[in-house]
Design brief:
homodimer, 2 domains, elongated, mainly alpha, two-stranded antiparallel sheet, DNA-binding, 8 helices, Arc Repressor Mutant, subunit A
Amino acid sequence: MAQKQNRSRYAILGILSYRPMSGYDVQKFFADIAGFWQESYGQIYPNLRQLLAEGLVSKQVEEREKGPNRHVYALTAVGQQELHTWLQQTAEPLPVRNELLLKLIFGHEAGPAATRRQLETYREQITADMGNLRIVEAWQEAQMDEGDPHALYRRMAVRHALRTNQALLIWCDECLAELEELVIE
Amino acid sequence: MAQKQNRSRYAILGILSYRPMSGYDVQKFFADIAGFWQESYGQIYPNLRQLLAEGLVSKQVEEREKGPNRHVYALTAVGQQELHTWLQQTAEPLPVRNELLLKLIFGHEAGPAATRRQLETYREQITADMGNLRIVEAWQEAQMDEGDPHALYRRMAVRHALRTNQALLIWCDECLAELEELVIE
DNA sequence: GGAGTCATGTAACTTGTTACATGATTGA
DNA sequence: TCAATCATGTAACAAGTTACATGACTCC
Protein backbone atom coordinates (compact mmCIF):
# COMPACT_ATOMS: atom_id res chain seq x y z
CA MET A 1 0.00 0.00 0.00
CA ALA A 2 2.77 2.36 0.97
CA GLN A 3 3.40 4.30 -2.24
CA LYS A 4 6.96 5.49 -1.86
CA GLN A 5 7.69 7.50 -4.91
CA ASN A 6 10.81 9.52 -4.34
CA ARG A 7 11.64 10.21 -7.92
CA SER A 8 14.80 12.06 -6.95
CA ARG A 9 16.20 8.78 -5.76
CA TYR A 10 15.77 7.16 -9.15
CA ALA A 11 16.83 10.22 -11.07
CA ILE A 12 20.10 10.07 -9.16
CA LEU A 13 20.56 6.33 -9.62
CA GLY A 14 19.82 6.74 -13.31
CA ILE A 15 22.27 9.49 -13.91
CA LEU A 16 24.97 7.60 -12.05
CA SER A 17 24.45 4.83 -14.61
CA TYR A 18 25.85 7.24 -17.17
CA ARG A 19 29.01 7.68 -15.16
CA PRO A 20 30.19 8.33 -11.57
CA MET A 21 29.37 11.84 -10.45
CA SER A 22 29.39 14.23 -7.51
CA GLY A 23 26.23 15.79 -6.09
CA TYR A 24 27.20 19.00 -7.78
CA ASP A 25 27.47 17.23 -11.13
CA VAL A 26 24.03 15.69 -10.70
CA GLN A 27 22.44 19.08 -10.19
CA LYS A 28 24.25 20.51 -13.19
CA PHE A 29 23.34 17.61 -15.42
CA PHE A 30 19.62 18.10 -14.93
CA ALA A 31 19.91 21.87 -15.13
CA ASP A 32 21.61 21.59 -18.52
CA ILE A 33 19.54 18.83 -20.02
CA ALA A 34 16.57 20.87 -21.13
CA GLY A 35 13.92 21.54 -18.59
CA PHE A 36 11.93 18.35 -18.17
CA TRP A 37 13.60 17.53 -14.90
CA GLN A 38 15.49 19.29 -12.12
CA GLU A 39 17.04 18.38 -8.83
CA SER A 40 17.90 20.70 -5.97
CA TYR A 41 20.81 20.20 -3.59
CA GLY A 42 18.31 19.84 -0.79
CA GLN A 43 17.23 16.59 -2.44
CA ILE A 44 20.49 15.42 -3.90
CA TYR A 45 22.82 15.41 -0.90
CA PRO A 46 20.49 13.72 1.60
CA ASN A 47 19.49 11.16 -1.04
CA LEU A 48 23.10 10.35 -1.89
CA ARG A 49 23.81 9.78 1.76
CA GLN A 50 20.80 7.50 2.01
CA LEU A 51 21.75 5.57 -1.12
CA LEU A 52 25.24 5.11 0.24
CA ALA A 53 23.88 3.78 3.54
CA GLU A 54 21.75 1.30 1.58
CA GLY A 55 24.70 0.23 -0.51
CA LEU A 56 23.17 1.27 -3.81
CA VAL A 57 26.04 3.63 -4.51
CA SER A 58 29.69 3.76 -3.45
CA LYS A 59 31.62 6.88 -2.62
CA GLN A 60 35.14 7.97 -3.43
CA VAL A 61 36.67 11.22 -2.24
CA GLU A 62 38.82 13.09 -4.71
CA GLU A 63 41.38 15.06 -2.74
CA ARG A 64 41.89 18.55 -4.08
CA GLU A 65 44.38 21.15 -2.81
CA LYS A 66 41.99 24.03 -3.21
CA GLY A 67 38.36 24.21 -2.18
CA PRO A 68 36.21 21.34 -0.88
CA ASN A 69 36.98 17.80 -1.98
CA ARG A 70 34.82 16.21 -4.65
CA HIS A 71 32.75 13.31 -3.37
CA VAL A 72 32.24 11.10 -6.37
CA TYR A 73 29.47 8.50 -6.25
CA ALA A 74 29.23 5.41 -8.42
CA LEU A 75 26.43 2.91 -8.96
CA THR A 76 26.96 -0.47 -7.31
CA ALA A 77 25.62 -3.75 -8.70
CA VAL A 78 22.77 -3.59 -6.20
CA GLY A 79 22.04 -0.03 -7.22
CA GLN A 80 21.97 -1.01 -10.87
CA GLN A 81 19.53 -3.77 -10.03
CA GLU A 82 17.22 -1.34 -8.25
CA LEU A 83 17.43 1.05 -11.19
CA HIS A 84 16.53 -1.74 -13.59
CA THR A 85 13.50 -2.74 -11.59
CA TRP A 86 12.28 0.83 -11.62
CA LEU A 87 12.91 1.25 -15.33
CA GLN A 88 10.72 -1.74 -16.16
CA GLN A 89 7.73 -0.22 -14.39
CA THR A 90 5.34 1.88 -16.43
CA ALA A 91 5.83 5.58 -15.92
CA GLU A 92 2.62 6.90 -14.42
CA PRO A 93 1.29 10.19 -15.70
CA LEU A 94 1.95 12.69 -12.97
CA PRO A 95 -0.89 15.02 -12.01
CA VAL A 96 -0.34 18.31 -13.81
CA ARG A 97 -1.15 21.73 -12.42
CA ASN A 98 -0.91 24.24 -15.22
CA GLU A 99 -1.13 27.76 -13.87
CA LEU A 100 -1.62 29.40 -17.25
CA LEU A 101 -4.66 27.24 -17.93
CA LEU A 102 -5.98 27.95 -14.46
CA LYS A 103 -5.82 31.68 -15.12
CA LEU A 104 -7.24 31.14 -18.58
CA ILE A 105 -10.47 29.56 -17.38
CA PHE A 106 -11.05 32.62 -15.24
CA GLY A 107 -10.71 34.74 -18.37
CA HIS A 108 -14.21 36.13 -18.07
CA GLU A 109 -13.27 37.53 -14.67
CA ALA A 110 -9.83 38.69 -15.82
CA GLY A 111 -11.09 40.42 -18.95
CA PRO A 112 -9.99 39.88 -22.54
CA ALA A 113 -7.03 42.26 -22.37
CA ALA A 114 -5.44 40.45 -19.42
CA THR A 115 -6.10 37.10 -21.02
CA ARG A 116 -4.54 38.24 -24.28
CA ARG A 117 -1.49 39.41 -22.37
CA GLN A 118 -1.14 36.02 -20.68
CA LEU A 119 -1.29 34.23 -23.99
CA GLU A 120 1.19 36.56 -25.63
CA THR A 121 3.66 36.13 -22.79
CA TYR A 122 3.22 32.38 -22.99
CA ARG A 123 3.88 32.55 -26.70
CA GLU A 124 7.11 34.42 -26.11
CA GLN A 125 8.22 31.97 -23.46
CA ILE A 126 7.62 29.09 -25.81
CA THR A 127 9.46 30.76 -28.65
CA ALA A 128 12.45 31.44 -26.44
CA ASP A 129 12.33 27.88 -25.13
CA MET A 130 12.37 26.48 -28.64
CA GLY A 131 15.52 28.40 -29.41
CA ASN A 132 17.25 26.72 -26.49
CA LEU A 133 15.83 23.34 -27.38
CA ARG A 134 17.21 23.52 -30.90
CA ILE A 135 20.64 24.22 -29.48
CA VAL A 136 20.36 21.29 -27.09
CA GLU A 137 19.10 19.09 -29.92
CA ALA A 138 22.15 19.95 -32.04
CA TRP A 139 24.35 19.27 -29.04
CA GLN A 140 22.81 15.85 -28.53
CA GLU A 141 23.37 15.07 -32.19
CA ALA A 142 27.01 15.96 -31.82
CA GLN A 143 27.20 13.57 -28.87
CA MET A 144 25.58 10.86 -30.96
CA ASP A 145 28.27 11.30 -33.60
CA GLU A 146 30.86 10.92 -30.87
CA GLY A 147 29.35 7.56 -30.02
CA ASP A 148 27.49 8.44 -26.80
CA PRO A 149 24.86 5.69 -26.57
CA HIS A 150 22.64 7.85 -24.31
CA ALA A 151 22.44 10.82 -26.66
CA LEU A 152 19.82 9.26 -28.91
CA TYR A 153 17.47 8.97 -25.95
CA ARG A 154 18.19 12.46 -24.75
CA ARG A 155 17.40 13.75 -28.22
CA MET A 156 14.02 12.03 -27.98
CA ALA A 157 13.35 13.91 -24.76
CA VAL A 158 14.30 17.19 -26.39
CA ARG A 159 12.03 16.49 -29.33
CA HIS A 160 9.19 15.79 -26.94
CA ALA A 161 9.40 19.40 -25.88
CA LEU A 162 9.93 20.67 -29.43
CA ARG A 163 6.85 18.88 -30.72
CA THR A 164 4.77 20.07 -27.79
CA ASN A 165 5.90 23.65 -28.17
CA GLN A 166 5.26 23.64 -31.87
CA ALA A 167 1.68 22.56 -31.23
CA LEU A 168 1.24 25.14 -28.50
CA LEU A 169 2.28 28.01 -30.73
CA ILE A 170 -0.58 27.09 -33.03
CA TRP A 171 -2.84 26.82 -30.03
CA CYS A 172 -1.86 30.29 -28.83
CA ASP A 173 -2.69 31.82 -32.19
CA GLU A 174 -5.99 29.99 -32.26
CA CYS A 175 -6.89 31.36 -28.83
CA LEU A 176 -5.76 34.87 -29.65
CA ALA A 177 -7.91 34.81 -32.78
CA GLU A 178 -10.89 33.66 -30.73
CA LEU A 179 -10.34 36.50 -28.30
CA GLU A 180 -10.22 39.01 -31.14
CA GLU A 181 -13.61 37.82 -32.30
CA LEU A 182 -14.97 38.20 -28.80
CA VAL A 183 -13.84 41.81 -28.61
CA ILE A 184 -15.14 42.71 -32.07
CA GLU A 185 -18.62 41.29 -31.54
CA MET B 1 11.10 38.26 -0.93
CA ALA B 2 8.73 35.81 0.65
CA GLN B 3 7.35 33.92 -2.34
CA LYS B 4 4.05 32.61 -1.10
CA GLN B 5 2.58 30.68 -3.93
CA ASN B 6 -0.34 28.67 -2.66
CA ARG B 7 -2.02 28.13 -5.94
CA SER B 8 -4.87 26.24 -4.28
CA ARG B 9 -5.89 29.50 -2.69
CA TYR B 10 -6.32 31.20 -6.04
CA ALA B 11 -7.84 28.18 -7.69
CA ILE B 12 -10.54 28.28 -5.03
CA LEU B 13 -11.09 32.03 -5.28
CA GLY B 14 -11.29 31.71 -9.04
CA ILE B 15 -13.83 28.98 -9.07
CA LEU B 16 -15.98 30.83 -6.56
CA SER B 17 -16.08 33.67 -9.09
CA TYR B 18 -18.10 31.32 -11.28
CA ARG B 19 -20.66 30.82 -8.55
CA PRO B 20 -20.90 30.09 -4.81
CA MET B 21 -19.83 26.55 -4.00
CA SER B 22 -19.14 24.09 -1.23
CA GLY B 23 -15.75 22.50 -0.68
CA TYR B 24 -17.13 19.33 -2.13
CA ASP B 25 -18.22 21.18 -5.27
CA VAL B 26 -14.77 22.70 -5.68
CA GLN B 27 -13.12 19.30 -5.66
CA LYS B 28 -15.63 17.95 -8.13
CA PHE B 29 -15.28 20.89 -10.46
CA PHE B 30 -11.58 20.39 -10.93
CA ALA B 31 -11.91 16.63 -11.13
CA ASP B 32 -14.42 17.01 -13.98
CA ILE B 33 -12.78 19.80 -15.90
CA ALA B 34 -10.18 17.76 -17.78
CA GLY B 35 -6.98 17.07 -15.98
CA PHE B 36 -4.94 20.24 -16.01
CA TRP B 37 -5.73 20.97 -12.39
CA GLN B 38 -6.88 19.13 -9.29
CA GLU B 39 -7.54 19.97 -5.68
CA SER B 40 -7.68 17.57 -2.76
CA TYR B 41 -9.89 18.00 0.28
CA GLY B 42 -6.76 18.31 2.36
CA GLN B 43 -6.11 21.60 0.57
CA ILE B 44 -9.63 22.81 0.01
CA TYR B 45 -11.12 22.74 3.50
CA PRO B 46 -8.24 24.39 5.36
CA ASN B 47 -7.92 27.01 2.63
CA LEU B 48 -11.61 27.83 2.73
CA ARG B 49 -11.39 28.32 6.46
CA GLN B 50 -8.40 30.61 6.00
CA LEU B 51 -10.08 32.60 3.24
CA LEU B 52 -13.12 33.02 5.45
CA ALA B 53 -10.97 34.29 8.32
CA GLU B 54 -9.38 36.83 5.97
CA GLY B 55 -12.77 37.95 4.71
CA LEU B 56 -12.12 36.95 1.11
CA VAL B 57 -15.08 34.63 1.09
CA SER B 58 -18.34 34.46 3.02
CA LYS B 59 -20.04 31.33 4.24
CA GLN B 60 -23.63 30.25 4.33
CA VAL B 61 -24.84 27.00 5.79
CA GLU B 62 -27.58 25.20 3.91
CA GLU B 63 -29.55 23.17 6.40
CA ARG B 64 -30.43 19.71 5.18
CA GLU B 65 -32.55 17.13 6.96
CA LYS B 66 -30.34 14.26 5.90
CA GLY B 67 -26.58 14.03 5.94
CA PRO B 68 -24.15 16.83 6.76
CA ASN B 69 -25.13 20.42 5.99
CA ARG B 70 -23.69 22.06 2.89
CA HIS B 71 -21.33 24.92 3.66
CA VAL B 72 -21.59 27.21 0.68
CA TYR B 73 -18.87 29.80 0.17
CA ALA B 74 -19.17 32.94 -1.94
CA LEU B 75 -16.57 35.44 -3.10
CA THR B 76 -16.65 38.81 -1.29
CA ALA B 77 -15.68 42.11 -2.90
CA VAL B 78 -12.29 41.89 -1.19
CA GLY B 79 -11.86 38.36 -2.45
CA GLN B 80 -12.71 39.42 -5.97
CA GLN B 81 -10.10 42.16 -5.72
CA GLU B 82 -7.46 39.66 -4.63
CA LEU B 83 -8.40 37.36 -7.46
CA HIS B 84 -8.12 40.21 -9.95
CA THR B 85 -4.68 41.16 -8.76
CA TRP B 86 -3.52 37.58 -9.17
CA LEU B 87 -5.08 37.25 -12.61
CA GLN B 88 -3.16 40.26 -13.89
CA GLN B 89 0.18 38.72 -12.96
CA THR B 90 1.96 36.68 -15.59
CA ALA B 91 1.59 32.95 -15.06
CA GLU B 92 5.04 31.61 -14.41
CA PRO B 93 6.02 28.36 -16.08
CA LEU B 94 6.04 25.79 -13.33
CA PRO B 95 9.02 23.45 -13.17
CA VAL B 96 8.04 20.21 -14.85
CA ARG B 97 9.16 16.74 -13.80
CA ASN B 98 8.23 14.28 -16.49
CA GLU B 99 8.76 10.75 -15.33
CA LEU B 100 8.39 9.20 -18.75
CA LEU B 101 11.17 11.38 -20.13
CA LEU B 102 13.32 10.60 -17.12
CA LYS B 103 12.99 6.88 -17.82
CA LEU B 104 13.50 7.51 -21.49
CA ILE B 105 16.93 9.08 -21.10
CA PHE B 106 18.03 5.98 -19.25
CA GLY B 107 16.91 3.94 -22.26
CA HIS B 108 20.37 2.55 -22.86
CA GLU B 109 20.31 1.06 -19.39
CA ALA B 110 16.69 -0.08 -19.65
CA GLY B 111 17.11 -1.73 -23.03
CA PRO B 112 15.14 -1.11 -26.25
CA ALA B 113 12.33 -3.51 -25.37
CA ALA B 114 11.53 -1.78 -22.07
CA THR B 115 11.76 1.61 -23.72
CA ARG B 116 9.44 0.54 -26.49
CA ARG B 117 6.96 -0.69 -23.91
CA GLN B 118 7.05 2.65 -22.11
CA LEU B 119 6.36 4.52 -25.32
CA GLU B 120 3.55 2.22 -26.33
CA THR B 121 1.86 2.57 -22.97
CA TYR B 122 2.25 6.33 -23.17
CA ARG B 123 0.67 6.23 -26.60
CA GLU B 124 -2.31 4.34 -25.27
CA GLN B 125 -2.72 6.72 -22.37
CA ILE B 126 -2.72 9.67 -24.73
CA THR B 127 -5.21 8.06 -27.06
CA ALA B 128 -7.55 7.32 -24.18
CA ASP B 129 -7.11 10.84 -22.86
CA MET B 130 -8.02 12.33 -26.23
CA GLY B 131 -11.28 10.41 -26.20
CA ASN B 132 -12.22 12.03 -22.91
CA LEU B 133 -11.05 15.43 -24.05
CA ARG B 134 -13.28 15.33 -27.12
CA ILE B 135 -16.24 14.59 -24.89
CA VAL B 136 -15.36 17.47 -22.59
CA GLU B 137 -14.86 19.75 -25.58
CA ALA B 138 -18.32 18.94 -26.87
CA TRP B 139 -19.71 19.54 -23.42
CA GLN B 140 -18.07 22.96 -23.23
CA GLU B 141 -19.51 23.81 -26.62
CA ALA B 142 -22.96 22.90 -25.36
CA GLN B 143 -22.40 25.24 -22.41
CA MET B 144 -21.34 28.00 -24.80
CA ASP B 145 -24.59 27.63 -26.66
CA GLU B 146 -26.43 27.93 -23.39
CA GLY B 147 -24.75 31.27 -22.86
CA ASP B 148 -22.14 30.33 -20.23
CA PRO B 149 -19.50 33.06 -20.59
CA HIS B 150 -16.81 30.85 -19.01
CA ALA B 151 -17.22 27.93 -21.40
CA LEU B 152 -15.24 29.56 -24.21
CA TYR B 153 -12.23 29.77 -21.91
CA ARG B 154 -12.63 26.26 -20.66
CA ARG B 155 -12.75 25.05 -24.22
CA MET B 156 -9.41 26.76 -24.81
CA ALA B 157 -7.96 24.81 -21.91
CA VAL B 158 -9.30 21.57 -23.33
CA ARG B 159 -7.85 22.33 -26.72
CA HIS B 160 -4.48 22.99 -25.12
CA ALA B 161 -4.44 19.35 -24.12
CA LEU B 162 -5.84 18.17 -27.45
CA ARG B 163 -3.18 19.99 -29.43
CA THR B 164 -0.44 18.74 -27.14
CA ASN B 165 -1.63 15.16 -27.30
CA GLN B 166 -1.94 15.27 -31.07
CA ALA B 167 1.68 16.34 -31.31
CA LEU B 168 2.79 13.70 -28.84
CA LEU B 169 1.22 10.88 -30.80
CA ILE B 170 3.41 11.86 -33.73
CA TRP B 171 6.36 12.08 -31.38
CA CYS B 172 5.71 8.58 -30.05
CA ASP B 173 5.67 7.12 -33.55
CA GLU B 174 8.84 8.97 -34.40
CA CYS B 175 10.57 7.52 -31.34
CA LEU B 176 9.27 4.03 -31.94
CA ALA B 177 10.57 4.17 -35.50
CA GLU B 178 13.96 5.29 -34.24
CA LEU B 179 14.03 2.39 -31.80
CA GLU B 180 13.21 -0.05 -34.60
CA GLU B 181 16.20 1.19 -36.54
CA LEU B 182 18.40 0.72 -33.49
CA VAL B 183 17.36 -2.89 -33.11
CA ILE B 184 17.75 -3.69 -36.80
CA GLU B 185 21.24 -2.26 -37.13
C1' DG C 1 -26.26 -6.31 -0.70
C1' DG C 2 -22.77 -3.51 -2.66
C1' DA C 3 -21.07 0.34 -5.19
C1' DG C 4 -21.24 4.96 -5.82
C1' DT C 5 -22.31 9.62 -4.42
C1' DC C 6 -23.07 13.20 -1.22
C1' DA C 7 -20.69 15.75 2.44
C1' DT C 8 -17.71 17.32 6.24
C1' DG C 9 -13.16 17.49 7.98
C1' DT C 10 -8.24 16.18 10.11
C1' DA C 11 -3.59 14.04 10.83
C1' DA C 12 0.29 12.08 9.20
C1' DC C 13 3.21 11.99 5.80
C1' DT C 14 6.04 12.88 1.49
C1' DT C 15 8.13 15.63 -1.46
C1' DG C 16 10.39 19.28 -2.70
C1' DT C 17 12.29 24.24 -2.71
C1' DT C 18 14.77 28.24 -0.83
C1' DA C 19 17.88 30.37 1.75
C1' DC C 20 21.77 30.10 4.30
C1' DA C 21 26.72 28.99 5.70
C1' DT C 22 31.41 28.59 3.85
C1' DG C 23 35.09 29.71 0.90
C1' DA C 24 38.43 29.42 -3.03
C1' DT C 25 39.16 30.31 -8.08
C1' DT C 26 38.56 32.23 -12.60
C1' DG C 27 37.52 35.38 -16.11
C1' DA C 28 35.57 39.80 -17.94
C1' DT D 1 36.05 44.50 -8.74
C1' DC D 2 32.20 41.87 -9.54
C1' DA D 3 29.94 37.94 -11.16
C1' DA D 4 30.11 33.29 -12.02
C1' DT D 5 31.59 28.70 -11.10
C1' DC D 6 33.16 25.15 -8.25
C1' DA D 7 31.76 22.49 -4.16
C1' DT D 8 29.86 20.81 0.21
C1' DG D 9 25.92 20.57 3.08
C1' DT D 10 21.70 21.82 6.42
C1' DA D 11 17.42 23.93 8.34
C1' DA D 12 13.22 25.86 7.74
C1' DC D 13 9.50 25.95 5.26
C1' DA D 14 5.76 25.22 1.71
C1' DA D 15 2.81 22.52 -0.70
C1' DG D 16 0.20 18.85 -1.47
C1' DT D 17 -1.54 13.87 -1.11
C1' DT D 18 -3.47 9.88 1.21
C1' DA D 19 -5.84 7.68 4.42
C1' DC D 20 -8.94 7.90 7.88
C1' DA D 21 -13.31 9.02 10.54
C1' DT D 22 -18.32 9.51 10.02
C1' DG D 23 -22.74 8.54 8.08
C1' DA D 24 -26.87 8.78 5.09
C1' DC D 25 -29.00 7.95 0.57
C1' DT D 26 -29.70 6.02 -4.04
C1' DC D 27 -29.40 3.06 -7.80
C1' DC D 28 -28.47 -1.49 -9.78
